[in-house]
Amino acid sequence: MPRARVVSRRTAAPLPRRASLGEPSAVRGRRVAAVKPLRVDAPHPAKAPHTSFDDSEFLRAVEHAKLDAMKELAYGASHEINNPLANIAARAQTLLRTERDEANRRMLTAIHRQAMRAHEMISDLMLFARPPRMQKETTDLTALAARVVGEVRPLAEERGILLDLAPAEREIAAEVDPVQIEVAVTAILINAVEALDSGGEIATAVRFTGEGWAELEVADNGPGIPAEVREHLFDPFFSGREAGRGLGFGLSKCWRIVTEHGGRINVQSAPGRGAVITLRLPGAHPMD
């Protein structure tokens, strides 16, 4: 009688969880004091059969593939939706020129306003999917931060929020696209304002950390970022408004701009203890 073969069965080890927030959809479950995000790099080549696959390489490859798919979806959807939206807005504006009835004018104004609002959201999506080519130049980051704080301050004051910029020890410059970095810093500040809603403080600071890096820090004393929101912090299709912090496309847009510059975003937060979001940018140096 032939001998039966014994088949060895190995129990598959569970995938490790990761705590980084530098890329969309960090896995939940691990408590971290300070979150240091990863930069999304090109996926590593596939391993030969029967060789072990490093866990960090696998997670990076998965995140890269997921991000590519998300970017293509965002760009394709944005392009298809943008054209009819522009048509709606243009026709509403044309009708407004000749409409005399006040009720009809209010309805047409609402149509135009909502179409333009949707257009802005689509523009954010397209920026996330395919940012415009960077026009880098030597930029005074301290002056840039002061300009953005000045623009957002009226919004903060409407809600009784104190928005302050700490005096810099020295002026700091970096080789960046000033328009895109302004967009990124504005997104972080507006996110902090929405987190506080009414009352509270937001402290902004710019500093040179040495070795060619500059930091733009935004700290608020709001409700903090819950763990279930933190793991999706930079996802473009996620909104945490019901959790007390408006997200939408603002932070995903910021993440995209900063990583395109070769920078990083660090997040520190705990429920009830506010949040500190720091943009780290390379190519920085003190100004003479």
From TrEMBL:
MF terms (GO), sorted A to Z: ATP binding; phosphorelay sensor kinase activity
Top-level taxon: Bacteria
A Pfam family recorded for this sequence: HisKA
Catalyses which reaction(s): ATP + protein L-histidine = ADP + protein N-phospho-L-histidine
Region (Disordered): 1-24
PROSITE patterns attached to this UniProt entry: HIS_KIN
Keyword Kinase included in the entry's annotation: yes
SMART domains: HATPase_c, HisKA
Enzyme type, top EC level: transferase
Sorted UniProt keywords: ATP-binding, Kinase, Nucleotide-binding, Phosphoprotein, Transferase, Two-component regulatory system
Domain Histidine kinase: 76-285
Record has Phosphoprotein as a keyword: yes
Coiled-coil blocks: none
Enzyme Commission identifier(s): 2.7.13.3
Protein name: histidine kinase
Lineage start: Bacteria, Pseudomonadati, Planctomycetota, Planctomycetia, Pirellulales
Gene responsible for this protein: kinD
